[in-house]
């Protein structure tokens, strides 16, 4: 809107930029004059605006920048230590949300902390401290989260197994090793049965979808 634009320019000059003396602003304030564009063009030259009068968006942006710079210059002590509303809280929130964002992996304190955690959790040492940190994260996620602890705390009932009744199929020459091998084989069979159960459930779910088509007798077609 032409009137809005002219009023905006006058307001900037009157309130913030103040390049002209008050008595010299008459032509710029006369926004209804046919000569206003010439007055505005002269004003742009006087404030050393690098843009042409036709480039309004660029001109407005430049004049606003000039106004901000002058406003700051007049009140430098007031603005130099100020921050946008909520900026400090936002910064603190960001830091709390991302505590490792500025982590220095070469910092001796970081290396010592990772090593102490690895020793505490009995994790194998590695030359790369980031690899150790990743191992710590995996262990914590799988073993030390609330869900993992709750799951581990649940008592698992099962039937007692007489190992002597199960044939190992080979002999290691050591009775203790033979017993350990029998236990590992039984655990492996249990895992295979659990996997087979999940496979069967998936097959049944797929069959339930493809074996129950919607029939439209009017079209003489079967299908979804």
Provide a quick synopsis of the model.
With 224 residues, the protein is mainly α.
What gap, in angstroms, lies between the N and C termini? 57 Å
Main sheet properties:
2 strands, antiparallel
Q: How many independent structural domains?
A: 3
Number of helical stretches of at least 4 residues: 10
In sequence order, what are the helices and strands, one letter per element? HHHHHHHHHHEE
- Please state how the strands of the largest beta sheet are arranged side by side: 1-2
Textual characterization of the structure:
- The chain is mostly helical and 224 residues long.
- It folds into three domains: 2-80, no CATH class; 107-156, no CATH class; 165-211.
- It has ten helices and two strands; from the N terminus they run H-H-H-H-H-H-H-H-H-H-E-E.
- Strands 1-2 form a two-stranded antiparallel ribbon.
- Strand 1 (215-216) and strand 2 (221-222) form a beta hairpin.
- It is elongated.
- This is RNA transcription, translation and transport factor protein.
- Belongs to the RTRAF family.
List descriptors.
224 residues; mainly alpha; two-stranded antiparallel sheet; 10 helices; 2 strands; elongated
